[in-house]
Amino acid sequence: MLNDYLEKELNALEEAGLNRKMKITSSTQGSRIIVDGKEVLNFCSNNYLGLADDFRLCKAAIDEIENSGFGSGASRLICGNMSAHRRLEERIARFKGAENCVVFSTGYMANVGIISSLFDREDIIYSDRLNHASIVDGILLSRAKFKRYKHCDMVSLEEMLKEGGAFKKKCIVTDSIFSMDGDIAPLDKICELAKKYECSVMIDEAHAFGVMGPNGEGLAKHFGVEQQIDIQMGTLSKAVGSFGAYCCGSDKLIALLINKARSFIYTTALPPMIAAASIKAIDIIEENRKLRQLLWDNAKYVNEALKGIGLDTMNSQTPIIPVLLKRSKLALEFSERLLASGIYISAIRPPTVEKNMARLRLTVMATHRKEDLDHLIQQIKIIAAKLLGSGQVERDNKACPA
Fold it and tell me: pTM for this structure?
């Protein structure tokens, strides 16, 4: 009976254009990678600054292996709390201007662990409608009352806050940069509302850490509200080019998470070499503003060119640039044609995005050359003309709200 169910579900996914199959990358993660044996331009990685294959991170990892070995051997609260972990936490806290920090093994584990350990059924959480799945799952696991406000809509948020209610704790949670739309949360306005209605604030800086702020500290620093935000979570697997996640905040917050966050307590600690590589990456990010400027120059160039073609890049304000196509099969066909022309961009379909909001999710890197960008733009233009037809791009985009 199980096999019958599995076959039925897989057939339904295939028919809807939602069946996902993994491709194999057999190279380092750079602006060019080898996918299924073919070299392609990589325009779908979160490796924004090109640090994932940076030799300095590799050297830091190798040096740490020589000192600490490969695996950590246990959870942090048993005997797996190694000196490299604490050095990383101190480095992040200093970089973020926070009292303290704790490192988790993944971003998903961080969000689930933070939210479920701090909130319960006597509390209420206000969450942006487009927040990452890990935030949603953390809220559901906490059993707190859950309200989703319209995406980046402060009127919608304030209407919910005005409703009040007898809750022990209230918290507003938002992504900093939204991973599928490429736009940014209005953190300054969120902090104003939080103060007015006596809420705490939690942000997910996953796609902003290393990208936003004067030295890459994140969106909180970009808006100058880092001292008004109670919980700052982020990942080390995107612009940092490494692996893992963190939570920054007060000493009391970190002490409580260490004691109550199940996804921290009941998992083996990160290998120390990963912590060492992350420290090196943060050093590079803080010291090298030029790298971040290259990223932003590339993002602006591509976004403006795609808009010039007539494609809908929604409200992207970052190196994440969606190309809205609405239909899942169309997004998949567009992606496959790009791959055939030597460009790798994933088709994003439900349930990752809402129904009729399928898209290409294009990301640029600091290490893309201008000729790479020009080739990308030219191929998108050619494929759009073939798949969408003359004038169809503009008609389709007007029919779908950004």
Answer: 0.92
